Fold:
Amino acid sequence: MKFNKYHIVPELKKSLEELGFKKPTDIQFKSIPQILSGQDILAIAQTGTGKTAAFAIPLISMLQQNKHREPEQNVKAIVMVPTRELALQIENVFKELGKYTDIETISLIGGVEIEPQLKKLEQGVDVLIATPGRITDLVHKGHLNLKKIDFLVLDEADHMLNKGFYQDIKHLLQFLPRRRQTLFFSATIDENIKDLAYALVSKPVRIQISPKDPVSKNVDHSVAYVAMDDKRFFLERVLKEHPDQKILVFVRTKVRAERVFKAMERVDIKTTTLHGDKEQEDRFAVLEDFREGKIKVLIATDISARGLDVKGVEYVINYDLPDVAENYVHRIGRTGRGNNRGNAISFCSEEEKPILQEIETYLTQPIRIMSILKTEYEETLAISEAHGNDWRSLIKEAEEAPKLKKKKRK
Ligand code: ADP
Ligand code: MG
Structure:
């Protein structure tokens, strides 16, 4: 079902269309109608599945439909989040989605001028986003009265527990009205989370989206066995086969990033690198160009790409496998976000096979193997040489077989 068929306010349909959100994601499809009907929910879904809009869409719609604010009701909905960054990110989502509504959203975070925000809070807002710690502080100082709230949202509940907010949240329970709608979102679930959830929600609808597989089903990922020295020819081939796509290439080190960049330059493929040796300003500029599509191929290390949220990355290539298994999921999670589909391919050399095994253990399942016929393999090398570049032997000497670091385990 498309969003334009939903029972949500027209102002929201307009902004959804502008944002290019046509269909709900799985978690949105299952949560939105339940929330609109007034149910508490307990929703578990992996990262990148669109949990923010899963609660923001119905909340905005309900708040817009009932604009009446009772005296002493200085906030209608509280969204608890684990970090300041997330508070700002979610505030933005509310502002974008609520662009044509009268909904007032603020996030209260530490480290910024608090007076203007408190003034706003005094006058009354619809949605307040903050960490449990900050909310506790506001309540104790008398700036915030929770007794009249209608909605309570906990986002990234697992992350909040990891950050030690369990006591704060439990403590806040006594200030909350019994009659309220509670929406509880988490990427993972375990006994602690369940314990917290059931202390907050009442008769919830439980929604769980394939939590066993940490990789989003929108990402089609496979592994190809390629010798270390031949990786660049395969990269060349993939890049030439997808000339117009936005592609993110992951390598193990900064040095390798620059080497791959040079190798591609020699076969007339324009790429750009992103790694920790570059100035922060350069890094922002590179990212901006990649976002805008001025750069099609970005060669990055794990560190530099952490938290990267670029729209429309169609391909992720693991030129090298990551040192830490979990990073495999973070890397390929850069594509296939929201309702988009994504592709990922990993080049695995003989030396990297133990890492592959670790990744598969982490995923609890094998990664599909993209089989390359011997003729195809040779053809890939030949195509490159047909280019008239006899740089293969030159580079081969220069590039020592990289030693694999001992894996750090968390
Ligand atoms: P999560 O909290 O589950 O990790 P987010 O809420 O941050 O995921 O959403 C991930 C990305 O998906 C965001 O960039 C968001 O804009 C996009 N997105 C969410 N819902 C939709 C949708 N229905 N259609 C298209 N894109 C969507
Ligand atoms: Mg989220």
